[in-house]
Design brief:
Number of domains: 2
Strand content: under 5%
Number of strands: 2
Structural class: mainly alpha
Order of helices and strands: HHEHHEHHHHHHH
Distance between the termini: 100 Å
Strand order of the largest sheet: 1-2
Shape: elongated
Helix content: over 70%
Largest sheet: 2 strands, antiparallel
Length: about 290
């Protein structure tokens, strides 16, 4: 029973572990374990030898013992040979039968155990290979664009003048991956950078000459990099304009309403006014400190 409790932690199938805990013993009312043996038989024909062993040793048992006890597979404790009322020479022969049969049973157990372990390892390897291939395909679909496929799509675009859905997905994929670089990933307008880059690629792909170069991937990457820098400069410019308007509205609250009412705003003049105000403020503060 201790062995059975220990085998509960084994990764082998439950039926195999139960069979590993069985031994051939003398028993008055042996339990029927045919369901366990039949389950093992589905994956391992080695179990058929057990029935042959039990049939043979029970015939030998009848030649030395005429009682109700039988030799059978048991998980529990069986009847000890010393408690049977037979001649001493028959007891010795019965011990030899038990020893030989359990030795043969041990070899069958070892064979079934090896095949069970092999099946488990095989299944795990298949699962690992499947997961590896799945991850490789996922990585390829998410992070990689083949230059040969991209070149064919660019040539088709130059002939037809129509951007196919596949070419668009490739350009979007390259732009998204390029935007994940450290010098671009931190900007809040990253999606705008990607959109402008894809638009710029479609706009200038007609200038690509496959006769001079076959590296369409490098050409597109260069366009995307330049488009990113242009978007960053524009966003910085707009941010600077917003800052100027905000500072101007702080100096003169009416300026804010006037700016919204006008169709065009001279940002340079507003900036000059802000700068002049800052300079006069510095001078006034300097004079006030010197007077003290």
């Amino acid at each position: 029973m201790r062995l059975l409790k220990y085998l509960e932690y084994s990764p082998l199938p439950k039926e195999v572990n139960l069979f590993r805990a069985m031994t051939i013993k003398l028993n008055n009312k042996p339990k029927n374990y045919s369901d366990i043996l039949n389950t093992i038989k589905e994956s391992n024909n080695e179990i058929n030898k057990v029935d042959d062993i039990l049939r043979r040793i029970n015939i030998e048992l009848k030649s030395v013992y005429k009682g109700d006890l039988k030799l059978a597979l048991c998980l529990e404790e069986g009847t000890k040979i010393d408690k049977i009322k037979i001649k001493e020479q028959y007891k010795q022969k019965l011990k030899e039968i038990l020893y030989t049969s359990n030795s043969q049973l041990a070899k069958i157990k070892e064979s079934i155990e090896e095949k069970s372990w092999f099946t488990i390892i095989k299944h795990k390897c298949i699962i690992l290979l499947y997961l590896g291939e799945k991850m490789a395909l996922k990585k390829k679909s998410m992070y990689y664009v083949s230059n040969a496929e991209l070149l064919e799509e660019v040539k088709l675009y130059k002939l037809t003048g129509v951007c196919s859905e596949r070419l668009g997905s490739m350009l979007l994929l390259i732009a998204r991956n390029y935007s994940s670089k450290g010098n671009f990933a931190g900007y809040t307008w990253r999606q705008d950078m990607v959109s402008n880059a894809v638009y710029t690629c479609i706009k200038y792909l007609k200038n690509f000459n496959p006769e001079k170069s076959t590296n369409a991937f490098s050409y597109i990457t260069q366009i995307i990099g330049n488009a990113f820098k242009l978007t960053i400069n524009d966003e910085k410019k707009y941010g600077h304009i917003k800052n100027i308007c905000y500072q101007s509205s702080l100096l003169n609250p009416l300026e804010k309403e006037r700016c919204y009412m006008q169709k065009s705003i001279d940002y340079e003049s507003i900036q000059n006014k802000v700068m002049d105000y800052k300079e006069t403020s510095k001078k006034e503060n300097y004079l006030w400190v010197n007077q003290d």
